[in-house]
């Protein structure tokens, strides 16, 4: 029997105060927004009015209008409009989540990304460097199975010592031993690494992974799809096309994938919109993306930690989410990440265009390497969703609903061992500053 879609159920043409929690609705409904804003000397109010009218007519926004959303549009009104668009696409009842974990098979990597604290560089001493073999990965799969996960998001550094056969073997063994768990493996840069090691084309690598049993691809490695940014923070990963070509080929061989974005470092608002424009165009071409997942850069222990002056806070996150929902008119699902932005921020994000609460992430090591720690339980996720005024629904990797949560989640059922969120961030100013002290970044590890 086909699984029910997480798509439209009951649709509404505009958000009513009744669908918002009593403590939130007075501030987030468009009819009860903040006091009237004075006219912008450059006519920004007219730009916002144009955007509202275009969204109402179902028309596509331009890149200039996308930049306006990130810089000048009224935040609460934009959030309410994004929520209205979300309700039209996915209904107002459910917020979905996935039971997953995010282990890694190696932390040896040759790419020297300036934003990464996780990798260890081959040839340099590191007592904590590791590479797991096939059975080591299967132990991770067994742990995921014991925890009830339906998805394992497995990624690793670009380690040239790993043979091509390893990648297809772990997909094949995962499918054989744990057929109920989706192997959501490998970022776009890892696919490029496999092509180099195997001598195959990008499409040839993806066809081999598909034959082994892989059906979905995570969106990691996108960062910001703008040439200037990628040259400054991850030059060895290539330009935007390096990431886009992998996902185009993945869709062509029958895989679905997610699109991601890591913002809050060296990019400008125009470069965020350039990123959104790239993935919107590819979605027009292939219709292969399931969701968009943005998160903010965490600078602790990274090579460019001392160079980034401001960390993007909650207001910028809400603005990015809402702008993404309004600009990405061909994406059904946008994820709110409790993990990277905090649980309360994640709850509010459900009224700024997001319809999904992400995963349980029982294991995660990349953010942890920066000093960012955030843990949860299934019961807590369902409670957070209910507190926000929605019905929790467990989904699979392709956003099909597996189970609608029954009954209220009791706070007393939450794990006493859930660590407190380690938050070491400063709020981004209202304007979007030039965030680097200078043009040169610190030397990588």
What does this structure look like?
It is a single chain. With 445 residues, the protein is α/β, with parallel strands linked by helices. The protein has helices spanning 25-28, 44-57, 63-71, 75-90, 134-146, 164-177, 188-198, 202-212, 227-233, 240-252, 269-286, 314-327, 338-341, 343-349, 378-387; strands at residues 94-98, 100-101, 151-154, 182-185, 216-217, 256-263, 289-296, 333-334, 356-359, 391-395, 401-404. It has a 4-stranded mixed β-sheet with strand order 9-1-10-11. It has a 4-stranded parallel β-sheet with strand order 5-6-7-8. One of its GO terms (molecular function) is iron ion binding. Its cofactor is [4Fe-4S] cluster. Residues 95-332 form the Radical SAM core domain.
